[in-house]
Amino acid sequence: MVRHSSRIELSLSALKQNINFIRKKIGHETELSSVVKADAYGHGISTFVPMAEKAGVKHFSVASSYEAWEVNQVCKNESSIMIMGILYDEDLEWVIGNGIEFFVFDVSRLKGAKKVAERLGKKAVIHLEVETGGNRTGLDEAGLSSALKYLKNNSDHLQFEGFCTHFAGIESLSNQFRVAKQQKKFEEMYKQVQNSGYLPELRHTASSAAALVFPDTVMDMVRVGTAQFGMWPSPDIYNLHLQQTDKNRDAPLKRVLTWKTDVMHIKELKKDEFVGYGTSYQAPEDMKIAILPIGYSNGYPRALSNRGEVIIRGRKAPVVGLINMNVFMVDVSHIKDASVGDEVILIGRHKNHVISIRSFSEFSNAINNELVSRLPAAIPRVAVA
Ligand SMILES: *Cc1c(COP(=O)(O)O)cnc(C)c1O
Questions:
Q1: How confident is the model at residue 346 (pLDDT cuts 50, 70, 90)?
Q2: Is the model's pTM score more than 0.90?
Q3: Are residues 125 and 264 in the same domain?
């Protein structure tokens, strides 16, 4: 195998700690669905899913039938998969045939699913998603009413597994007025379900933020992405957690991901020379720089030009010049023995030096999830203890 220019390590002990923390928050009666859309938020489905199973996860949620297929390649037979987003008609046969659960937000989907289920002699496992104010996908009252009738009349082929919605920005306290309206709407629509006399197995609304600090959103199942990877959904949610637990500081979530590369080349510069393209960095004095084989095409944000930091030999080295397509430079004048082949930490920790995922958002305007979910699939991911 030819070596890639960087590597990502995933910590099983961090993941176990995060899952245990989330389980404590939601209680043992509630199912935890691990959201692994976007290649497990960039952590890599094929490495992450078996690790999550080791941490006790039995249910996975994805955004598309394609991602369901990716999870199905690597998960245990007894694990469940749920599609929350796009599912093409031509994939219904594979989805239903493999017992994969899916959101329904169009009554016509029920009709298509019933036909396929009947032909395969296998029930389609349905979660009705309702519109509560997010205005993405979801059935309105009239749609819900027809869907309930259709489900009831075709219960030989359609299993009414879930009743659900998704909150529009529950990670920000400034959105709480919207979320409160959505919760009320969800309850009203659930009354409509109860009145029909035909009930689902599960109700679910909560994502990470909701599961961590809004206990009344935690029902029979939660769909948690961000938090399982050790990232807080937002500063608001972290602060609410501190308030609720009466603590000044707390670090119950551990970053699962570490990203590393190596020093490719070292160069001595004379005072006043420029570094890399253009004139954005001019050496203020004689200096030594390290050239790294990583750039914006590898997921390292260009916005970190002249701003980011990495760790080499246990010391921080600042980015100098622009982030290029697959190269950037750091100042190692203060790291006397820095040499070609040295390990470079792009995201991660060495003793008390940390490059956090959050530090990227401070400069690049990207939310944590954006940075990690854009790490290219080609970077190898390995599980570590
Ligand atoms: C992405 C997603 C989640 C998980 O959200 P996190 O905030 O990352 O936990 C839950 N539900 C739906 C419908 C989603 O699209």
A1: very high
A2: yes
A3: no
Distance from residue 224's CA to the centre of ligand 1 (Å): 6
Q: Both 173 and 55 in a single domain?
A: yes
| Backbone CA torsion sign across 113, 114, 119, 123 | positive
pLDDT per residue over 214-240, tens digit each?
A: 999 999 999 999 999 999 999 999 999
Check if the beta carbon of residue 244 is closer than 8 Å to that of residue 285.
Answer: no
On the question of pLDDT at 271 being above 90, the answer is: yes
pLDDT over threshold 70, residue 31: yes
Instruction: Tell me what pLDDT residue 177 has.
Output: 92
* Residue to substitute in 102, 166, 231 for testing ligand 1 pocket (most ligand atoms within 8 angstroms of CB): 166
> Could you give the CA distance from residue 254 to residue 132 in angstroms, rounded to a whole number?
33
DSSP letter at 173? Answer: G
Clarify whether residues 52 and 105 are in a common domain.
Answer: yes
| pLDDT tens readout for residues 86-139 | 999 999 999 999 999 999 999 999 999 999 999 999 999 999 999 999 999 999
Write out the two tokens for 291.
Answer: 């050239």
Q: In which domain, by residue range, is 364 found? A: 257-384
The total domain count for the chain is 2
CATH classification at residue 209? 3.20.20.10
**Helix or strand holding residue 113 (H, E):** helix 107-120
Whichever domain contains 296, its CATH number is: 2.40.37.10
- Region label for 253, one of left (φ > 0), alpha (ψ between -120 and 50) or beta (otherwise): beta
pLDDT of 366 over the 70 cut: no
Among the three residues 218, 244, 270, which one is the final residue of a domain in this structure? Answer: 244
Q: Report residue 347 as tokens.
A: 């995201």
Q: Does the CB atom of residue 166 touch ligand 1 within 6 A?
A: yes
Q: Are residues 236 and 280 in the same domain?
A: no
Q: What distance in angstroms lies between residue 220's CA and the mean position of ligand 1's atoms? A: 16
Q: Report helix angle 12-26 to 45-54, nearest 10.
A: 60
Last residue of a domain, one of 244, 269, 292: 244
220 plus 105 within the same structural domain: yes
